[in-house]
Design brief:
alpha+beta; 3 domains; Jelly Rolls; 8-stranded mixed sheet
Length: 458
């Protein structure tokens, strides 16, 4: 090929680039038409270009294999980009179809076919409406590290969308009520509104009865939920560890029929090895759930007889009787923007939290009824600084409304702590992350205090 031919070939590629980007002007379409009619070699160049482009688009929207994961984990996989790629492929196909048919003289087509192809920036809606979102990001921990583009809380997620984390946690919520709490490092990929796939990482799935059948895949390992809560640790070496806190799940492998899956009941744990198609019973570790719950709540340390309760209010009764010498730490709300300024004063000092501050709220609840007096002591350490500690019944009642949580049925006089008489003491660390407490309560009274923490979510 002479120099002029190579120059024309390069020009064909430039014009095809513009067509696939949705920015080919009318004059460019005419020029491309002429170049393709000038030399059959240009047709071959055009076909090769589009084959390569189609392969790239296909790779961008198809699920990854384990081997592809490392090489592509930093790629861009959000829904808008994939939708643009699909549209650009349509534009290119229309352009080339019109040019090839006209060049070979098979049909007489309107020359404005290429010129009239809409650009991406100003495109009209596709003939078929886009698919509805499968889920949304409910929560993102402040320490989340992204491999690839970061995603904001509240973002809708579509089929083949991926959440790739180097560290931290993301909560994904489905319209069915399924909630998946995913912890990196690893990738969570959405396959449908009833199926996700893990490439490494850990996930805690909470599935209501109405969404039974929700499935998590890790390599060839398959875990089907029957209305339960379970924890899965996925490895890229084709193994998965599954623990069931309540309900039951079916476990097996992709090649197995549904009836061949093994059932795992509450309080049980198994390990799946896809290579040998084996399922082994392992020791159920309640501490693994507890630690996962603490990590998700943004709590780095919990000392003493304190149980983290994640049941949302108002379903949790605030006059609930606790076991002797055990307190409940209720995770109330996350990412709540205060609607007004909050001023609090107690023996710990004065706390001023401005309006608009985003907080996470926790309520400590201690109400034993089986003995005249009970004492509890311990400490709570958060990943984020503590903004305020509320210890009196009146302010507890006021902040119930401010935080949008249901008030308890206790009388405000029997709620809170006895500040100043030495029976109840609190101490806040210098970095404002650890609260140490020693509380003495009498039968018929409820000791409570509320902790407002800098939101751990974005």
């Amino acid at each position: 090929m002479n120099g002029r031919g190579r120059g024309n070939e390069q020009r064909v590629i430039e014009l095809l680039d513009q067509a696939c980007d949705g920015r080919l002007p009318s004059a460019g379409a005419d020029e491309l038409h002429e170049l393709l009619a000038l030399d059959p070699q240009h047709f071959q160049t055009c076909v090769q270009y589009l084959d390569m482009h189609a392969a790239l688009v296909h790779f961008a929207v198809e699920p990854l294999t384990n081997d592809e994961l490392v090489a592509t984990i930093r790629g861009r996989h959000d829904h808008e980009r994939r939708r643009d790629l699909r549209w650009m492929t349509t534009v290119a196909a229309l352009c080339v179809a019109g040019v090839l048919l006209a060049g070979y003289g098979l049909f007489r087509m309107n020359e404005g076919m290429l010129a009239g192809a809409p650009a991406v920036a100003g495109r009209q809606a596709p003939e078929h409406p886009p698919a509805p979102p499968l889920a949304k990001i409910q929560e993102i921990s402040a320490e989340a590290g992204w491999q690839g583009p970061a995603r904001p809380a509240g973002q809708a997620l579509f089929r083949n969308d991926r959440i790739a984390l180097s560290q931290g946690r993301v909560v994904v919520e489905f319209p069915s009520g399924v909630q998946v709490r995913f912890q990196g490092p690893g990738v969570l990929a959405l396959e449908s509104d009833m199926s996700v796939r893990l490439f490494g990482g850990r996930a805690l799935a909470n599935v209501p009865r109405g969404a039974a059948g929700f499935t998590i895949r890790a390599g060839d390992c398959v875990i089907v939920d029957y209305g339960t809560e379970f924890l899965i640790d996925a490895s890229v070496d084709q193994t998965a560890a599954v623990s069931v806190r309540r309900g039951q799940v079916g476990v097996g492998f992709d090649s197995q029929a549904g009836g061949d899956r093994s059932l795992v009941a509450a309080g049980s744990a198994v390990k799946l090895e896809a290579g040998s198609r084996s399922v082994f019973s392992t020791v159920y570790d309640q501490e693994a759930f507890r630690q996962f719950d603490l990590d998700m709540a943004g709590i780095t340390g919990l000392a003493g007889k304190v149980r983290l309760v994640q049941e949302p209010r108002p379903t949790f009764p605030l006059d609930y009787v606790t076991p002797a010498r055990e307190g409940f730490l209720l995770q109330e709300v996350a990412r709540h923007d205060l609607a007004k300024d909050l001023q609090v004063a107690n023996p710990l000092g004065k706390f001023d939290v401005p309006r608009g501050t985003t907080v996470d709220s926790f309520l400590f609840h201690f109400s034993p009824k089986d003995r005249p007096t009970s004492r509890i002591q311990g400490s709570i350490t958060f990943a984020q600084p503590i903004f305020a500690v509320i210890t009196d019944g009146e302010t507890l009642g006021e902040t119930d409304g401010l935080l949008g949580v249901a008030p308890g049925r206790e009388n405000e006089l029997s709620r809170g702590l006895e500040n100043g008489n030495g029976s109840d003491t609190l101490q806040l660390s210098e970095d404002r992350r650890t609260l140490t407490f020693a509380i003495l309560t009498a039968e018929g009274f409820t000791d409570q205090f509320r902790i407002l923490v800098q939101s751990r979510a974005e």
